[in-house]
């Protein structure tokens, strides 16, 4: 197994740092050689050796319809022959913006960009520009792309003022980033009590998907909304991962809480590069050319990306789509939990829409600390056991998993059967 992947990885190491174009692909947290893929269709991936896998990564979320959905591919092909990029406005961008305004409760105006990172970075700049304040709050374990001010984490649970978690981020750039514990109401309240008038914005993954899968308390989210309103801070929901993944109206639709700004990515490009940020009209009016907050992009609103995104949004808006997707995901989570129990494993799982978490802990975690306390070694053994049996899971214990519309009941049953075998082999040690 993995012969071709090994060859390609060896070669890649010579010309690409670490052999990969995004660090988590390198398998560093699970060990072994990253699998190089050749093609994908529906729920399946084929690696460079021709081995077939049932996929639960879905390109980290975008492949909600399954890979290479024929209607999405046709939309891309049809658009491509009319020109790949104009650097000028197109009608398709208008349709995309109208769709996003319709579907996402908080979005009155929206701007398209080319990645989630651009979306969050621009939303933060907008919040700072609109409020004239500097400080931002983010939460431990939440990932918002690789912009300087957002690449900051904290010692567990403690309130800290920014220590960059990447070399090359000057401390002064991160100094205005306050990192708080996710889902910790007391910490949030005391921070606003002390610094409320200096806080430009709070950015949060309203369901955290970059430390596995954590659903915050509804009461916590309501308090967050009211604290931001009370202190004039902009509330940003980073729905790059959750948008159009957990439901048609994002986590904001699920909780019934409306942020001031929302960032989107992943699913909205249907597998092509795209991001977006949008929200209250009066805030968005601060963007250049109307206002003084500058942001731009040569490929922003790229016609081919927009075609893939629009077709994807059309197909997932069909009645019953998310009900079916949720049912499939629930079936997977319940099945995995059942076979884990049969084999005496400490295991739990949780999901919403087409997004799930699995944990080598007795119940789904509610904080960063609880995620960190799960049995990472056991996850690594499980990951490799599943990979060897043709199931591709995210190569990290801190990533959410994704189910697509293309996953059939048979795929789920197969996955559960292979998990059962894997758990049994783990139990034997
Ligand atoms: C993936 C992700 C990003 C970054 O998006 P890119 O397109 O990878 O730049 C930002 N925020 C969240 C919540 C994400 O999951």
Small-molecule components bound: pyridoxal-5'-phosphate
Instruction: Give the DSSP E fraction (strand runs of 2 or more residues).
Output: 15-25%
Which strand order does the major sheet show? 4-13-12-11-10-5-9-7
Determine the N-to-C terminus distance.
22 Å
CA-atom Rg in angstroms: 21 Å
- Given the C-alpha coordinates, what overall shape results? globular
Task: Let me know the number of strands.
Answer: 17
Classify the oligomer.
single chain
Largest sheet: 8 strands, mixed
Range of helix content: 25-40%
Provide mean pLDDT, rounded. 95
- Stretches where pLDDT is under 50 for at least 5 consecutive residues are 154-160
Report on the structure:
With 429 residues, the protein is an alpha/beta fold. The chain has 14 helices and 17 strands. It has helices at 3-15, 70-80, 91-103, 116-131, 171-174, 185-195, 218-231, 250-255, 281-284, 303-316, 321-342, 368-372, 376-388, 409-427, and strands spanning 37-41, 44-47, 52-55, 109-113, 135-139, 152-153, 160-161, 163-164, 177-180, 199-204, 234-238, 261-264, 275-279, 348-352, 355-359, 391-392, 401-402. It has an eight-stranded mixed beta sheet, with helices on both faces. The model is unreliable at 154-160 (pLDDT under 50). Bound molecules: pyridoxal-5'-phosphate. Residues 115-117, 120, 143-145, 205, 209-210, 238, 240-241, 265, 275 line the site of pyridoxal-5'-phosphate.
